[in-house]
Amino acid sequence: MTEYLYAIWFAVALGCLIIEINIMTIYLIALAIGAAAGGVVSLMGSDFATQSSIAGIVTILASIGCFYLRRSLRSKNDRQNNQLDMGQRVVVKADAIAQDGSAKVKYRGADWTAYTVDAIAKPGIYTIEKLDGSRIVLGKYLGAEVANNTEQKAQ
User: Fold this and answer.
1) Domain that residue 100 falls in
2) 132-154 pLDDT, tens digit each
């Protein structure tokens, strides 16, 4: 059994890569790299404790690398997505304003929670300053009469 342990390590690495391709998280790549390192150490004739230790250390280092890689990729994509939404208009209706000053608005066919940075939202049309996760940060207030005209045209 121990003479074919390297095959088990490489099978685990291959399994992690197959699952990674299907679910698209970057962290299973770290497990695959660690399992492959365990397989390499097994081929060199080390005992199981050494193989497991090396696999664990390599997996931890690869996970840290994946964390920083994913964070850098995500921030680039978030900046691009926010640039598409900046300057777009949303309508804040009077009955959609919550007591905490936030409001529910329709944007891109979905309900979003919107808030202003410095004040309580009031009914009217706003521009989008940026997206903060799943919330919209409202920018410039364009006025209430424009909102009323928009609502009348929609009816």
Assistant:
1) 86-154
2) 778 888 888 888 754 455 544 44
CA 115 to CA 118: how far, in whole Å?
9
Q: Tell whether 78 and 90 lie within a shared domain.
A: no
Return the SS3 of 7: helix
The structure tokens 């903060």 sit at 132
Q: Are residues 62 and 73 in the same domain?
A: yes
Q: How many domains does the chain have?
A: 2
Give the tokens for residue 20. 């990674």
Q: Are 122 and 133 in contact (CB under 8 A)?
A: no
Q: The dihedral of CA 65, 67, 71, 74: what is its sign?
A: positive
Which of 26, 54, 84 is at the close of a domain? 84
Render pLDDT for 91-129 as a digit per residue (tens, 0 to 9). Answer: 888 888 888 878 888 888 888 888 888 777 888 888 888
Burial class (CB in 10 A: 0-12, 13-18, 19+), 87: exposed
Question: Kind and range of the H or E element at 52?
Answer: helix 48-85
Amino acid sitting at position 96: A
Q: Let me know: does 38 contact 59? Beta carbons within 8 Å.
A: no
